[in-house]
Specification:
The protein is mainly β. 0% of the residues lie in helices and 36% in strands. It has a single domain, classed as Jelly Rolls (Sandwich), CATH 2.60.120.10. Pfam families: Cupin_2.
């Protein structure tokens, strides 16, 4: 499945595309159609598009972290990032400037606020898979940084 990630959808309340009067159909993405993302990549992680550019309000991806790997330090701009996974950890630079870490266990959820710099870490011997939901916006935003508090990587 190829998705157009350049032109985000817009909700409308008037005209022929009125979302309230003519809601879009339910969209189903079978596991076999979840594809490696063409945008929003972070070194050290495999990001796969599941629900991308199908809604102007929200998007969903899978993040796969191979054993003993970590992502680059990054943030997701104005998007709020919600994650559920069974392994791995989220590391961020806390309010005191000291690195903080939370381990993800099966059924756990974490909310990462807009512009919060963080890393995904998998110290384990098995792949970690996370379901990621982001809003607002139908396309994932990832801004990789040159370390904590660093400038944007080009």
């Amino acid at each position: 499945m190829t998705l157009d990630t350049e032109a985000p959808l817009q909700l409308t309340d008037d005209g022929p595309n009125n979302e309230r009067a003519n809601p879009r159909p339910v969209h189903h993405t079978p596991a076999s159609s979840v594809s490696e993302a063409t945008t929003g990549q972070t070194a050290g992680m495999i990001r796969q598009s599941a629900i991308v550019n199908l809604s102007p309000s929200i998007c969903g991806t899978l993040m796969r972290a191979q054993p003993h790997s970590s992502s680059a330090v990054h943030h997701h701009g104005e998007q709020v990032y919600c994650v559920s996974g069974s392994k791995g950890a989220i590391v961020w630079n806390g309010e005191t400037g000291k690195e903080e870490r939370v381990e993800m266990r099966k059924g756990d959820w974490a909310l990462i606020p807009a512009f919060r710099e963080h890393q995904e870490v998998n110290d384990g011997d098995d792949e970690a898979v996370w379901v990621i939901v982001r809003a607002p916006g139908g396309v994932p935003v990832v801004e990789n940084l040159e370390g904590w508090g660093g400038s944007k990587k080009e």
